[in-house]
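Quick one, T. Sequence first:
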Amino acid sequence: MKRFLKIICCIALVIFIVMYVVFGYIPVFGELISEMILTRYAHTYGISDGWIHTDIDWYFTGCYDWVECEGLSYSTHKNIIIDWDENERVDKDAETDFLKVASTFSDDFRFRSFGMSVKINAFDFEKRAHNISFTVWNTEELTPVESRKRAVDVAWQILREMGDDYHFRQLYYGYYDKNGSLVIDADNYGYKELSYEDIEENIYVDERISLEYIDWKKEHGFD
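Structure tokens:
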């Protein structure tokens, strides 16, 4: 009997380990932890005074979502909370700050497609990671080497001048000029703020396009 119980315990342990390796958490405990964390967050910020019941979104995010109104999500993999109402507010306010900085650039620059999201540390709600995305079209006459540096400098100026309220951990940014398309995809995967070097080291060139970048996008119409 003791041997049988040991076998059962070993099998259960293996199952738990496999679940943790594959999913990043043990489902039953993951749901309980997510509900405890989201309940504490909801109480702290006056969102709800009751117990938060969650359900796993297997298909789209792998996050536990607040079933009642889907206003909060929690990722067991990354230990982050997403407050969708706060995301909407921050995105709107941040766009105003972004456009103020963008307006300081010369007329050669056109900024588009701004977006921002916020990830909240599940263990320290004061820690927030801001993820920013945008595109810019630049009509300056530059060499390919100058284009690369200008792309990094523009991104760095935007991040630096938007203000101390933002803690940028992730940047997805498309830069376009006569030499082609550059993409900067920098992510610190945590709460360490992006540096100039992080941006510089995560720049990628779209090698598929040229012909003077398709006659510089039909002479600045950008299609």
